Amino acid sequence: MTASLQPVTTAPGSGYRHELYPYAGGDEFVQGALRFIQDALEGGEAVVVAVPQDKASMLRAEIREDEAVRYVDTSRVAHRPGRLIDAWQGWIRKHVEEGRPVRGIGESPWDQVRSPAEAAELHYHEWLLNKAFAEGPAWWLLCPYNVAHGGSGLRDMARCHPEMRKDGRTMPCGDYDPQASYAFVPLTRPCDPYEEFTYTGGDLPALRGKITACAEEHGLSGRRLRELHLAATEVATNSIRHGGGHGVLRTWSEDGRLVCEFRDGGYIEDPLSGRVRPNPRQIGGRGLWLVHQLADLVEIRSSPDEGTTVRLHTELPG
Amino acid sequence: MRAPRTLTTLDEVDTGDHVCQVLDRTEDVIDRSRAFVADGALHGDKVVIVGPALQGGSEFAQLVLDPARLDVSLLAAVRREAANAGREGFRSLRVLHHVRPGCPAKQTGELLRSELELEEFAADTGSLVVCAYSGAGWDPSTLEQIACVHPHHLGSRAASTAFRVYRAGQRGWAVDGIVDSDGAVLFGTVLCTLLARTATVRLLCHALEFFDAAGMSALADAARHLPDRKVILEGTNETVRLAWELSGFAVPDIPVVMAP
Q1: Same-domain pairing of A32 and A168
Q2: Which of A33, A49, A200, B57 stands the most exposed, by the fewest C-beta atoms within 10 Å?
């Protein structure tokens, strides 16, 4: 990491601030988070805390929940990065509507991620937050990150945060380039053996049939299978309507998950597609939103040259 | 509840059926009518043939209702005939409707309205209605659209349809099959047609196999297409209800109720 540590002059409440807070150990986590909360309270700001349960307990022991400080339940979204932007929009909405400045503390359960794909998507989510809130309400999100995780994690996080907190001071993050496109981790190869099915208009029932056959082999049925059918249909419909009229489905299982991959020739220009809750009156634009809400994990890679690949991960029973 | 089914011959029809029959080019209207009249006599049914007046002296002349010459709507005319059949001691009314292509611009909407009225008529009165479409005179997509509001299909060229909407007694309308992006527009049109006739439409969805975002958008658009309307869906599974909420449609200005 090559962060150049210069003080940041942005005043609280004058735009979206997204700050990385690398810490070592529980004490440093509590110390940094508490200071952030206390600064907020002194300024009359509200704070939303969205951290794993064990971290929330440590903070609750120091500052209890009240009107100004709210600890939110992240269990429904913590492992589903595609749902987190909407979750944050919901968590801060009340304060924004009241016109009250708001801060957030958000930490993903990095030590409990279920797959490398989930970790990669959590990093991508951190990068997308800058785009999602660039035009939105002014608020300040602090993202604690335990340096003990090691590897490239801290560097990956630094690339997603315009600012970094060190020694109680906020500095610009040198690794963050607001103009750069996101450097995705390449998708893994499909696990053998995998099934392949080429689909076009009129093939949606057959596509669902292929998925059913594969899912039932792995004990997936009932509600979870219906949700996968719906998510898969939305992706395949996009292929047929916007991705050149056809696509290729591949299915396989890996590490206790069923993976359905869809490839087509289309291009998803807006990286926030499907991550923002649709307006009841908007026409269309619900397909990818439903996909993110129904699948356990969604990976999307799209470029004008190579088309679009969407992978839906569904956790298998048992 | 009436069970949808595909019939191989006219012998299998029963009272209360509303049958979509796609005729081959070789099938003769007079022959079809003659067989239909004979079956009616066999079962003690009063027979009515809806279609253009046949040439003078036709053996069916007194059985024919020509839509172009009716002083009331077709629905009112067959209702009157059904009432007469009861008074005259017949078991029920048996209607053979030779449907002719009309103005293409109005065709599908008018046909859907007419067929939904006949569907309700057949279900509510126990009359048998066979709608015969000459395959040569209709394009396949129109036939597919029309077929979706018939619970019973007849013939080697029976039109395939992803979903069907049909009368489920006084409880409302049953929907079965798949409503996805391929059929969403048609589903919306059927709903708008029903909502134009009644303020509250109750859809029984116990046999609805699949309902995607495009279908839900069509439902939402139809429900708010006219003021003071309401659509109640019964028998929806939890995935449909979840997707409806997630799609942002579960709001007061979209008058749709989703129930298990």
Answers
A1: yes
A2: B57
pTM of the model: 0.92
How far is the C-alpha of B185 from the C-alpha of B200, rounded, in Å? Answer: 20
pLDDT in tens, chain B (260 residues): 688 999 998 889 999 999 999 888 777 778 888 889 999 999 999 999 998 876 555 777 889 999 888 999 999 999 999 999 999 999 999 999 999 887 555 577 889 999 999 999 999 999 999 999 987 788 888 888 899 999 999 976 666 789 999 999 888 999 999 999 999 999 999 999 999 999 999 999 999 999 999 999 999 999 999 999 999 999 999 999 999 999 999 999 999 999 99
Query: In 3D, which of B163, B82, B86 has the Cα closest to residue B123?
Result: B82
Closest CA to B108 of B75, B152, B143: B143
Which of A80, A233, A294 is the best substitution to test chain B (most B C-beta atoms within 10 A)?
A: A233
Calculate the dihedral angle through the C-alpha atoms of B87, B90, B92, B95, rounding to the nearest 10 degrees.
Answer: -100
Among residues A137, A172, A207, the one where a domain terminates is A172
Which pair of tokens denotes residue A198? 């080429």
Task: Report yes or no: A28 at the B interface, CB cutoff 8 Å.
Answer: no
Chain A residue with CA closest to B214: the answer is A284
| Domains parsed from chain B with CATH numbers | 5-160 (3.40.50.300), 166-258 (3.30.750.24)
CB atoms within 10 A of CB B6: 13
**CATH code of the domain in which A167 resides:** 3.40.50.300
* Partner-chain contact B212 A233, CB within 8 Å: yes
Q: How far is A270 from chain B (nearest CA, A)?
A: 19
How distant is the Cα of A184 from the closest Cα of chain B, in angstroms? 28
Q: Tell me: do A163 and A23 sit in the same domain.
A: yes
**Domain extent at residue A100:** 17-172
Are the Cβ atoms of B213 and A201 closer than 8 angstroms? no
Read off the CATH number of the domain in which A247 is found: 3.30.565.10
